[in-house]
Request: fold
Amino acid sequence: MKLRSTMLLLCGSLLFIQGCILQTTGDTEVGVRTRKLALINPIGVEEKVYAPGSTYFFLPYINDWHTFDVKDQNLEMTFTLKEGDRDERDDLLFKTIDGNDISLDVIITYQIDPQMAPYILQYVAPDNRSLQEKIVRTVSRSKPRDVFGELKTEEFYITEMREVQADRARAVMQEILGPMGVIVKTVLTRDYRFNKDYQKAIEDRKIADQQAEKNKSAQRAALEEYKRKLEEARGEVNKIVADADGDYQKAKIEADAYHEKQQRIAEAIKTEAVTEAKGIREMNEAMNRAGGETLVKLRVAESLQGKKIILLPMSEGGMNLKTTDMNQLIQILGVKSLAPQKQEP
Reply:
């Protein structure tokens, strides 16, 4: 009896397997099963998520099978034809906060939350393509316009400003798409374009700004060159001043030394003169005392010693010095001195 039951169960299993359909999930896919007819379990989307890279068996007709790719997806909206998700121009067109028209290339990177695959199938979209076209694309073309439209025209040239708005756009989109099972990872901006007239005005302004910056650079360079030459001139002047100060100090030292030397000489001369004057004064005082006349006579005698003295008669009938020819007198005296003197017997 037991063997019979086992055989019947085995036969039933073989018949069941033969009637089932093989369902699989790829390496980056999750599967979702929908019961169309059931005796015990409820009809509808099953809350279970079937893991990636697996194989499953289900009876046909009473079960449906859906898969969702959960790897990163890119939605690329660009100006260039046949480069983004569509073969036509697909960039975002909007106005800046100051009223200028602009078009912007945007790339949205997102991912399906694997655990929300049953919810997505039941309430959002039946597959990845429908989810991107009907949900992700709609939000991506709406909210980034509003966020980037908060920038002024000039702010689009600042990379940091665009990055801040891109992160804000990602956060806004996540608030909308998160409850639908979509994880928004990044919002990236590429090229941006203004209308031709405004673009030309911007380019002209850029050229003017570049020229102005070039002129400022030249002005700064000239100023630096002036400062350099000024410093060189100051250095040269300081050198001249230092040399002049050195010469002045040297001359001053020499002058001070000469002055001191002359002062010492003058002091010495003064001292010598004072001493000599003192000696003369003392001599004069000595001369005025007794014995002074005698000393004078002695000094006169000493000075006349060895000298020939001629006495000239000065009487009234004698020689008159006022009328006497002294040259003739000297000549006569000289002749007499040369005459031979008589020798005494």
Q: What stands out?
A: The chain has seven helices and nine strands. The two ends are 221 Å apart (CA to CA). Residues 1-18 have pLDDT under 50 and may be disordered. The longest strand covers residues 182-194.
